[in-house]
Write a structure and sequence with these properties.
Helix 5 (121-137) runs parallel beside helix 7 (174-192) and helix 9 (293-300) packs across helix 11. A hairpin with a 2-residue loop joins strand 12 and strand 13 (309-311). The protein has 365 residues and is an alpha/beta fold. The two termini are 45 Å apart. The protein has two domains: 32-289, Rossmann fold (3-Layer(aba) Sandwich), CATH 3.40.50; 292-349. The protein has helices spanning 5-17, 41-48, 71-84, 100-105, 121-137, 157-164, 174-192, 223-226, 293-300, 321-324, 328-346; strands at 35-36, 55-56, 60-64, 88-93, 114-117, 144-149, 196-201, 230-240, 256-268, 276-282, 286-287, 304-306, 309-311, 317-320. Strands 5-4-6-7-3-8-9-10-11 form a nine-stranded mixed β-sheet. It is globular, with a radius of gyration of 23 Å.
């Protein structure tokens, strides 16, 4: 950095006590050096600000939602995509939810996945600490991706000890403290060792709240929301068989062919938070890469809806959605680039420069 010599000498004192200190434009640990595809372009977009992005490398990402919202499915898709990029997946499983048949079907080479059954939060934390410390000592940083599935099903060592003694004492905060310690460890070591970490968790409404909050409560206290770089909240609704898609029902299966997953970014350090998007998880074909793009295209004005038909902004008629939904050339050359351009301008955080400041209205909660 070109500065006054005395200024450089003063700043160099920091480097003597902290070898990771750097100027922000020169490989700082806080900089994200890439993204890992989630399998859904809409999900990529609301997390990273690009349909071709995904979850941030070398950071901690939290996926939270009720049971059956596709958390483990999405995690395994991310791990499979990371594995294709050369990363080695390590899975800490507290729910016995991940098996070789399911993982193989989602694209993972299970012979190169380290599987770790997890029982306590502290055990998981210590194992990750020792493992990543060893990777750092051996100069093998940037080689791994870790998934913890799930945080909500692990107990603290204190509670496990009470169970062994048949104690009925209530947990007075030991679990939340253990979760905070685990997430702090993951956050720090993810950056130091260039390791991407994904954690799943459950959510619930606060029973004491008069009005339900947009952002739901999670086991582990507030640290489960504010420590990750991205906290994604999921919800679901079953979808009946659609005669216009490629799904088919299995013999004996009821009329539901899949579920629509609704994702909300409860926290995001990269683009504006509280962004929402939809994904379709088909029981027949898995996660649909393109689902939800139509809603974005209409919202951004990339295409225009006129009743039940659509057209381009210049007036070119597209017709009913069923007629052009599989037109790959239209999507690749017109619609997807149009959405991508809009996302990069409308979803990023504004610098506030060159804008006239005005006196804000009071915010009333």
């Amino acid at each position: 950095m070109c500065m006054d010599k005395d200024i450089n000498d003063i700043l160099s004192e920091i480097d003597k006590s902290n070898p990771y200190a750097s100027f922000l434009n020169d490989g700082a640990l806080s900089n994200v050096d890439g993204w890992i595809d989630t399998g859904s372009m809409v999900l990529n977009g609301i997390i990273s600000g690009s349909l071709f992005g995904g979850i941030p490398r070398n950071r901690l990402t939290m996926l939270a939602g009720p049971s059956m919202t596709g958390k483990s499915f999405i995690v395994q898709k991310i791990l499979a995509n990371a594995q294709k990029d050369g990363l080695i997946p390590v899975i800490f499983d507290s729910e016995n939810a991940i098996d070789k048949e399911g993982a193989t079907a989602l694209g993972l080479d299970v012979s190169k996945v380290k599987y770790v059954p997890s029982f306590s939060i502290e055990e998981c934390r210590n194992t990750i600490y020792n493992f990543l410390t060893k990777a750092r000592e051996k100069g093998q940083t940037g080689k791994f991706i870790i998934a913890i599935d799930s945080l909500g099903n692990m107990e603290s060592e204190l509670q496990l000890g009470r169970m062994e003694k048949s104690s009925t004492s209530a947990d007075m905060g030991s679990r939340a403290k253990a979760v905070k310690s685990l997430l702090r460890t993951c956050t720090q070591l993810a950056a130091l060792t260039k390791t991407t970490i994904i954690v799943t968790n459950h959510i619930f409404d606060d029973p004491s709240a008069m009005f339900p909050s947009l952002v739901k409560e999670m086991p582990g206290g507030r640290a489960a929301v504010y420590l990750p770089s991205v906290t994604l909240q999921l919800a679901r609704k079953p979808i009946k068989e659609d005669k216009n898609n490629d799904d088919k029902l299995a013999v004996g299966q009821k009329s539901y062919s899949g579920v629509v997953l609704r994702a909300l970014t409860a926290k995001n350090r990269f683009v504006k938070q509280y962004l929402e998007g939809e994904m379709y998880l088909s029981f027949e074909n898995g996660l649909n890469k393109y689902y939800g793009l139509l809603e974005l295209a209409v919202g951004f004005g990339v295409i225009e809806q006129t009743g039940s038909t659509y057209q381009l902004p210049g007036g070119d008629k597209l017709g009913y959605y069923s007629k052009w939904k599989n037109d790959q050339e239209l999507w690749d050359n017109t619609i997807i680039p149009g959405i991508e351009e809009k996302i990069k301008t409308e979803w990023k955080y504004s610098s506030g420069q060159n804008k006239e400041e005005t006196i804000p209205d009071e915010v009333v909660e």
